[in-house]
Structures are given as C-alpha cells and as structure tokens.
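dumping this here before i forget
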Amino acid sequence: MSTYAFGLERLGLLAVQAPRTCLAVLLAFTLLAGYGLTLVKHDNDPRSVLRSDREHFLSYDRFLELYPALENQVFILAESPDLTSKPVLEALRALHLELLFVDGVTSVVSIFTARKPPDENGNLEPVFPEELPQSAALEALIADARAHPLLGDKMLSASGTATLLVVALEESLRTPPQLARLFAQIDGLIAEAGPGLSLQLTPTGLPAIRHETVVQIRSDQNLLIVIGTLVAILICALFFRRPVLVFLASLPPMVAILWTLGGFGLSGEKITAMTNILPTLVLVIAFSDAMHMVHSIRRQLQDGLPPREAARISVIEVGPACALTTITTMIALGTLVIGESRLVQQFGICGAIAVLLAFVAVVVLIPALAVLLLPNKPDAAHRVTASALALATRDWSERLWEMVRRRPVAITVIGVIFLAITGAAFFQLEPRYNYRAHLPDNSPANEAIDRIDAALGGADAIFVHIEKTGVADGGQKVPIDIIRAVHDALEREGRIENVMSLASAVTWLGTDEAAGADDGSIALKGLPEHYAGRLASNKGSSWVVTGYVPAASAPQTKALLDELNVALDAVRAEAPGYDIAITGLVALAAFESGRMIERLKLSLAFAVLIIIVVIAATARSLTLALLATVPNLLALSIVAAVLYLMGLGFQFTSTVALTVAFGIAVDNTVHFIHRYRLERQSGDIETSLALTMRKVGPVLIAATALLSSGLAVTQLSALPMASLFGLLCIIVLITALCATLVLMPALILVARGRARRVGSSG
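structure:
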C-alpha cells in the first residue's frame, strides 16, 4: 500500500522517525512565510476575470492606452429634491472646484463645465455665470445645460433631482493605497459639502468599485479566517474532547493558512476577490485531513499502542488516503487552467499549491507532535475514550448501513433516477456574468448605479472605437463622416442613450470641417481639453463614440451589441482603412464571459475524467472508480438543479465552485474506498462494508460538518462571489456525503451481487 498515493505519505513516516528535525525545518519555512505575509498585496480590478490573450481584450487594452480617463473616472451622483435651487447649485459648484485640488484628479466634468456656443471672437462662455441668478433666469440656465449636446440628459436628469460630477483620475492612480487616499479626500469633501442642505452625494464608477472591493476583501480575510478557525476548533473539541488531540488537529490548518498567505507575498501574486476564498478553503481542507489523521491516532491509543507506534500506523493507514484526496483536489484546481481567464487560472494554480502545502502541514506536523506531546504511559493512553459526538456519528453510520444492507437495489435505482432528472438541469444552464457581482452587498457604489440607470439613462458605457489603420484613397469617406455615421447608428438603437461624439461637437460649434480639415481637428481646438480627450486621441488617428445603457447581464448586453454590430457593418463597408470596434468593460464582458464560462465547464468535465482515472489507477479497480463517481456526480447535478431553479445560470464563481467542490467531495469516496480495500483483504463484502461504515463513517460525517461549517462563514461575506462560492460548496459536500454513505455501499452491493450472479451462471 506504500505506493497507493505515489509515496507522499512517507513524509509522515519521516516525521515519526525524526520529529524534532522536521519541526525545525517547518519552523524555518513558517518564519519565511511570516515575512511574506508583510508583502501581501491585493488586486481590486473587476476586469481581471476577463483578462486573456483574446482579440477583444487586446483591443480593449489598446483602447485604454489611448483613452485612459474614460474608465478611470469617479462618478459622484448628486441627488436632491431641491437640486436646481440656488443654494444646492452653489454647494455643488464649490464641490466641483474643491475636487480639482484633490491629488490625482486631472479634470472634473459637471453641468458647471457646460459652455455656450462660441461668440464672434471664438470664446466659450460658461452656461452658469459666476453669480447665479434667481427664479426664471436660473431655470433658463438649467434648461440650457440640459439641452447641451455634449452633456444633456447624461449630466442632469429630466426631473431635475439628480446630476453627475465626473472626476477623471491620473492614469497611474490605480493601486489600493492610492485609491484609499483618494477616497479619503473625496469623502471628506462630500461630508463638508452643503451643510444643512438635503443633498445626497454618492461616489461610484470603476475606481469606487475597486476601492470598495479591496476594503471588503481585507475585511473578509480577517473575518472568515478567525470565525472559520474558531468553528473548526469547536467541532474538533466536540469530536476529540481531549485538549492535546484538539491541538494536534488545529495547529496544521493554521500553519497552512500562514503558508498560503505568505506564499502570495513572497511570489508577488496579488490576492483578488476570487483568491481571497483560498485561505478559508485551505483551512477546511486541512482540518478535514487532520481529523482523519488524529481520529486514527486516537483509535490506536485506545488499543493501547504507544504514541510513536500509533502515529506510525496512522500514517500508513490514513496517510495514503489523505495524499490521494490532496491529489484529486489539486487535479480539480489544476483543470481550471483550461479556462482562458487569467484570474481563474491564477486561482487554480495558487489553490493547487496551497492544498499541497496544507497536506504537508498535516502529514508532518501531526505525527511529529504526537510523538513529542502524547504521554508514553499506557494507563494515560488507555484513558483516550470516544466523545459523545464520536459515539453519535458512529451510531448514525451503523443505522445508515442497516438501511443500505436491507434495500441496496431500491437505493441504487432511486439514486440513478434522481441523477438523470437533476443532471438534465446541468445542460439547461446558460452562462451569465455581470461585473457588479464583484461589488459588496449593500454597496453604495452599486446602489448608485441603479439610481443612475433610472434617472440619467444608464451607468454602463458602450464605446465604439474608430482607428485609422490604412492609407486613404480618393473615394474614401472623411473621418468626420465616419464618426457621424457611427453616432447615428448608436442613436437609432433605441436602448442606447446619451450618445456623444466629435460629430456632436462639430454641429454644436458650427465648424465646417470640409473647408479646413477632415478629421474634426478644428472642432477639437475649439473645445476644452477635458472634453476633447473624451472624443479623440491626441495622436490624431483615433476617435470614440460613447453611448450609455442601463446595467444588464452579459447575454442581454451581447444581444444588443450584436444588433449594433450589424448596423455598424454598413459603416465599415464604406470605410476601408479604418477599424471600427465596439469596446469597453461592458462590451468585453458581453463578448467574452460566455465563452470563458463554457471553457470552465469543460474544465469541470476534465476534472471528473482525470479523477476517475487517478482513483482507478491507485485503487487498481476501474469498477470502484466508476462507482465512486456516481455519488459525486449526483452532488453536482443537485447543485445544477438548484442554480436552475434559482435562475442564476452558470457564472465564473459557480463553475469554479463546482469544480473545486467536486475535487473536495471526492475525498469522502477516496477515504471510503481506501478503508473498504483494507477491510476487504480479510472479509467478505458485507462484513467489509459494515466495518468501513463503522470506522470511516463517523469521521466522514464529522469532517463534512467541519468543512461545511468552515465554509458557512463565507455567508458572512458581503462579496456575492465569496458567499455564492461557499453556499454551492456546502451543498455539494453535504449531498456528496449522503451519497457516499448511502448510495456508494448500495452500488457496491448491487455491482458485486450482479458479478456473482454472472459468475455462477457462467
């Protein structure tokens, strides 16, 4: 059996032989990880999940190089029933001016940047004079601002109760510390704006989303680890009762978390909203393996063996199964590299390494500490008795076995039928993605997006990037004609509002481009720099048309953009030498998220296939491997049915959760098969299954309770990604446990019974 899991369990035997040396090595490694903990950084960019080498992302990157301010800007939503009154307008203008002095702010656009058409000298006078008038005169100015072709309804709602201040940031201002300082200043100005006025000011936009996300990631990291650890220790205390055994089971998971977080710091990998789940995942996986190892040591102590021998036998009996569960979980995580999302690939690679580190912590620390800490006196060893929880779980296991023994065929038929019914839901689920899934629940920035959608025509920007790529010929349209054609195409699409382009500026300024230039340069020179930079690049060969839509799911947005692309094809046909592409974060999500999620579903299929092969190779039985797959597939299909009934569809988080949960859920069947094969060497099928249920059932129940309780703390997270991941994993683990303890032995009885009948008839 030493090769059952490729010999990884031999690390435990080394720890039994040289416990102090092994502990010294692990201590040095832990100190290094502690230093790495001081280097940990966070990635707060919701675009990371869509990052790839595909054409759409490369085009998006190119667009951001030319127009960095278009998505690195804060929207401050100002709302008041008295918004158009003189006191509120004066407070907003004062805020506008104060924002210009905030470090990292390059410009601010609001209704106060609105300019009148040029006079005879070419001067652009502000719509709102320095001294605001009263009554009808002020209402006339507000009407002029609302009718402004470069601002219009995007900046001031039709009801006159909402307006935006758009704060453009320096391109380099993106890191969490920089954003923290920025929003500290902005929040301070907001708190001081308009004292005594009924004025609500809420920052939103991509930088606000990134700031809120990283704040929540850090909060989650502390909360989930602390509460998860306390819950796991409590379960261990109830199961093992003896303090030294609880300590043996609890220390390795804590060390594994430190190694995981320290590894992020030492490697330079940033913790994201997705990889933030890894410490909790490592915690519960390590606790599960630790419970199996300590449970085995306790059994040996109850039989009167000294600690060193108890640890050695436990490593031999349980070590291979723990190693194999580590391998299957690493395989499940490793298959995520099939997906094209770099964020998901990072999660898979880092997760696989973290799970391996957790195994090393468990298989080395527990035997080494058991040898050094457990007393060698036989009378002390004999006092290690089972706890009430251990006795209760053993009783449950024996009752389940009696039920299975009496009705194996009925249980098998019901299980297969249920698998077929719920499995159909898996193929009915469609990919879904919304960047707002990265935002914390009750996020002010998230709620502001909904209010912008309702009052100002939509918060999500659709950009059409026009870039000169070839040499113009004599019959080619001039750029301003192309811009105008694209602008008209967006306006004809009824769901896109507040379209803005250089064509708007040309019309508003009254410049005759054909007389002096064909690229809108005359109009650009007549505009303030902060306007011009939103319409054309300073390189003179790139222009952008912008429209806004209400927030929607990626499939809904893709349907809209597919229609727009058809309309733009006519423009492209008339504009050789120009690249006309729909881009932006919303467009990127619409075009790429569905295909990426489908690739992740493929990784789940690969995980199932590879794990079957690994179990078959290590157990030396294809039959057992196939039987072991059925309970876990049932767990996945049940989750798919839950997603279908909830109308959630397949998201990045749910697909990753199913893949990871499958790798963890298989652990139950691995431990079950491993014990069954040991018992089968000296008994018949029924006796072997009975002993397997008696010896493994209790710890599987306790370990699943620990895993589920540890993952349940994710429900305290305000990040929907984390809470959904934890919920789906819990459903998979609980259903997989029930299937392993009920359906698995029934399948073995039915399969072996059929084999005997076939053999006797032959």
